[in-house]
Amino acid sequence: MKQRPVFTESKETEEFINSVKFDAAGLVPAVVQDVLNSEVLMVAWMNRESLRRTLESGRTWFYSRSRQALWLKGETSGNYQYVREMRLDCDGDTLLLKVEQLGAACHEGTRSCFSRVVGGSAEEGRAAGIIAELYSLILERWKTQPQGSYTAKLFQGGRGRIAQKVGEEAVETVVAAMQDSHGDLVEETADLIYHLLVLLVDCGVSTGEICEKLAERRR
């Protein structure tokens, strides 16, 4: 995963920072969103210097109110955030960062800090989070190609091999369903979804695009 500055010119960086309305403490809230599927990952605070470092480095820097110090997201955990887009709201007092998230965003080890669901289906929210986390992990394997990784081996075998695996798992899922085997159906469905996600990554298709298409069909 590559890091790159949000702005290539220092003049653009300063102009953007000057357009932000910091509060009396010199801070502005920053909402961090997954660029792949629009999931909200976390909310943190930035001051002028952490915003500048974020814009110049392409990785998220925040300001800790409790420690009164700057901190680089992922410096200790390795779960870096690579900024792909930054937006400022209409009032100029809230930032939106769209990032590629490496690993978990929350210090508790979950993909998102917003993993507790009220007034909706917690199970559906958890399932969506797992899908997003798995897609992100597969994307990381595609980029890093670590030795000994089954996922990396699939990518190295080429798209034809990946597509073949999707077909095989689809057949096995159908067989499990026709045999009315609940346990086998759960296991084969999980295998099918995993291999399908591998194929989507290899084809450059995000889960967000799939969700948008499903939303269209729901209308």
Outline the structure in words.
By secondary structure, this protein is an alpha+beta fold. 48% of the residues lie in helices and 17% in strands. Strands 2-1-6-5 form a four-stranded mixed sheet, with helices on one face. It is elongated.
Structural class of the helices, strands and pairings? alpha+beta
Mean pLDDT equals 89
Low-pLDDT windows of residues = none
Number of strands: 6
Strand content: 15-25%
Termini separation: 36 Å
**Helical run tally:** 7
| Helix-residue proportion | 40-55%
Largest sheet: 4 strands, mixed
Instruction: Identify the strand order in the major beta sheet.
Output: 2-1-6-5
Shape: elongated
Cα radius of gyration in angstroms: 20 Å
Summarize the structure.
By secondary structure, the chain is of the alpha+beta class.
What descriptive keywords fit this protein?
two-stranded antiparallel sheet; alpha+beta; four-stranded mixed β-sheet; 219 residues; 6 strands
